[in-house]
Specification:
heterodimer; A: 2 domains; 5 helices; B: two-stranded antiparallel ribbon; globular; transmembrane (chain B); transmembrane helix (chain B); Tripartite tricarboxylate transporter TctA family protein (chain B); DUF112_TM (chain B)
């Protein structure tokens, strides 16, 4: 599990390194790519070394992501991705934040789900937090965030 | 003694209010496990956009100073270091708290932090102008090597694997080249429209430092720290004062160790605290008391981790080379206000530079005074479930990244870099060299191009970049830092093998 993660991760970095090197050495004007060429050369050498070690099972540093960690992480990661790449722009920043915040609290809060009191507490925390964010960003810093469908 | 002229600027109502807010907020944030000083400062940058440069830096500087000190609260009362810099404080601080001496431990910790911190800032005040004058002699080739040195030192010293640390630095240097080339106007590596203007440093800083911590908190699941706050009993502050100055050996070893370590780029507060603790134990006549709730342990660790704060900014303010990840974030804070630190900072913007440094001096005193009062509240905040903290940090990151330029592209870049960094960190890569590469990349490239032009008209590239006393010295330091880290890595691997063999 750990070895395959190292191979996949370092392989991906190596592939990016090769792409950077290919672009740096083939694109014009050459003068604009002098510095990227310098970096790309070192990048490919180091990434190749790391990938080679991973393939041979010699990667010692980094524990990877265990199955339990991944299972715990997955809901939060999915909500983060939906929030950033879809909801914030489509629903509006404050609506998306309210939904994401409340959902994350509901999933990760260690308090028991069966108690009504817990849900009321989560609702109050979410409302107070979003109000503070509105006060800070919309009123104090005058940041105009996308309002879109809702708010 | 120029700094004295700018002391008044710290005491204008707005500046002082920001200093106070930054200090108290930093103490509370610092006490919260999982929120590192670097992340706290990165998340605060968007709040400085509408402030004047000096005021923005006052807020960031106060937060930096007090988050390091605030980490001692959770280290002492919860046995959870607020930041890596407070690991050594846990060893004796928490045992003292368990014995009912929590107030004494907290008082000694804040007093020692203030003494160490003031000494560190004084070092910053007196060293910076001298080094800035010296740095005036630096040409493009020297600045190029300095930028490479900054990435290399952090890449090798801050990472568990030298190769992965250097590779992280390379990734950062490459990310810095994305966008339009300054000289030819050519497009480079723009594979998505959001990258047209290059990678925004502030959005990248927020993503690289905040998002991996959010995901780490998620990965722990429905986790409750289970840590109980130990109630503190009253203790005379005068007695703590007397005790601190009766333990001068621990205080001076901690302060000096922290100051020296702070000057070395890449070596953080965690190392400062642990080295100072170890050295104080070696020189103490009560060696056997260490680890059993001995006040010298707390004094040494806390004076060291705060003494390194001031000196860690010396390379940033004189050479524009951040010596630590937090200094890199502060550089981001300077750049958004159009201020480029370096040898001429004290000539062009003396008001900004000196007001910032002076505020750090006053901040140490405020941190000490308020630390004692805020400790109880900070310990309660530290008990807030990580789910709440993760959701708060995520929302702040999204709003913070968007507010930089009002662009969703920055939010996407922030999220992609953050999520990518989380998985890379799990595979042994490090965010600090990547950030340094991203920040120092443009400096390295500009000086590489400029130096190349001079070289073509004079002695040729090889001679220009590879000869001359200062060039050779800088190249030697780059190679030495790599060689030292490789040696340390091989040595630790030897020990591991022996231990494994014995097991």
């Amino acid at each position: 599990m750990n070895r395959s993660q190292h191979v996949f991760g370092s392989g991906l970095v190596f592939a990016v390194g090769l792409w950077v090197a290919w672009v740096s050495y083939t694109q014009q004007p050459a003068e604009a790519f002098l510095f990227p060429r310098l970096i790309a050369t070192v990048f490919v050498v180091l990434a190749g070394w790391t990938f080679g070690k991973a393939v041979m099972g010699l990667s010692k540093v980094g524990n990877g992501v265990t199955r339990t960690m991944f299972v715990n992480l997955l809901p939060g990661l999915i909500i983060t991705l939906i929030h950033v790449f879809w909801a914030a722009k489509t629903l509006g920043f404050y609506t998306a934040t309210t939904i994401a915040f409340f959902t994350l609290l509901s999933i990760y809060d260690p308090a028991p789900h069966s108690e009504v009191k817990t849900w009321i507490k989560r609702g109050i925390i979410t409302a107070v937090f979003v109000a503070v964010m509105y006060g800070l960003f919309a009123m104090l810093l005058n940041v105009y965030t996308p309002r879109e469908i809702l708010f | 003694m120029e700094f004295i002229y700018y002391f008044g600027d710290v005491f204008t109502p707005m500046s002082f209010l920001l200093l106070l807010g930054g200090t108290i907020g930093g103490l509370i944030l610092g006490a919260t496990p999982g929120l590192s000083p670097t992340m706290a400062v990165a998340l605060l940058i968007p709040f400085t956009f509408q402030l004047e440069a000096a005021q923005g830096l006052i807020l960031l500087g106060a937060a930096y100073t007090s988050t390091v000190a605030g980490g001692a609260v959770s280290a002492i009362l919860l046995k959870i270091p607020g930041a890596p810099a407070n690991i050594a404080t846990t060893l004796d601080g928490h045992t003292m708290a368990q014995k009912g001496e929590g107030a004494r431990a907290l008082q000694l910790s804040f007093l020692a932090s203030a003494v160490g911190g003031i000494f560190g800032v004084l070092l910053l005040i007196f060293l910076t102008p001298v080094l800035a004058q010296w740095a005036l002699a630096f040409g493009p080739s020297h600045l190029f090597w300095l930028a490479i040195l900054g990435v290399t030192v952090i890449g090798t010293l801050d990472s568990a694997s030298v190769v992965k640390g250097l590779l992280s630095g390379c990734i950062g240097l490459w990310l810095a080249t994305i966008g339009f080339d300054d000289i030819m106007g050519a497009q480079r590596f723009i594979f998505h429209p959001a990258l047209g203007g290059g990678i925004n440093i502030i959005a990248a800083l927020i993503g690289l430092f905040a998002i991996p911590q959010v995901l780490t908190m998620f990965a722990k699941g429905r986790h409750n720290s289970g840590a109980e706050v130990i109630e503190v009993q009253r203790h005379s502050i005068l007695a703590a004062f007397r005790e601190l100055f009766s333990r001068t050996r621990a205080l001076s070893i901690g302060t000096l160790t922290g100051s020296i370590i702070g000057l070395i780029p890449g070596v953080g507060g965690q190392i400062a605290g642990l080295v100072a603790y170890d050295q104080t134990k070696k020189f103490s006549s009560e060696k056997d008391k260490f680890g059993t709730g001995h006040s010298e342990g707390v004094i040494a660790a806390e004076s060291a981790n705060n003494a390194m704060v001031g000196p860690s900014l010396v390379p940033l303010l004189t050479l524009s080379i951040p010596g630590s990840p937090t200094a890199a974030v502060l550089l981001g804070g300077l750049l958004i206000h159009g201020i480029f630190p370096g040898s001429d900072l004290f000539d062009n913007h003396p008001d900004v530079a000196w007001t910032f440094i002076n505020s750090m001096l006053i901040g140490q005193v405020l941190m000490c005074i308020f630390g004692l009062y805020v400790a109880g509240l900070a310990a309660r905040v530290a008990q807030v479930p990580q789910s709440v903290m993760a959701a708060i940090v995520l929302a702040l990151s999204v709003f913070g990244a968007y507010s930089v330029q009002g662009s969703m592209g920055d939010v996407y870049v922030m999220a992609c870099l953050g999520i990518g960094m989380f998985f890379l960190e799990r595979l042994g890569f490090s965010a600090a060299p990547l950030v340094l590469g991203l920040i120092l990349g443009p400096i390295a490239e500009a000086n590489f191009i400029q130096g190349g032009m001079i070289a073509d008209a004079t002695v040729g590239k090889a001679s220009y970049f590879m000869t001359g006393g200062l060039n050779l010295f800088l190249i030697a330091v780059v190679l030495a830092s790599i060689a030292y880290s490789v040696w340390m890595e091989l040595r630790s691997r030897c020990y591991t093998t022996k231990e494994e063999a014995q097991a």
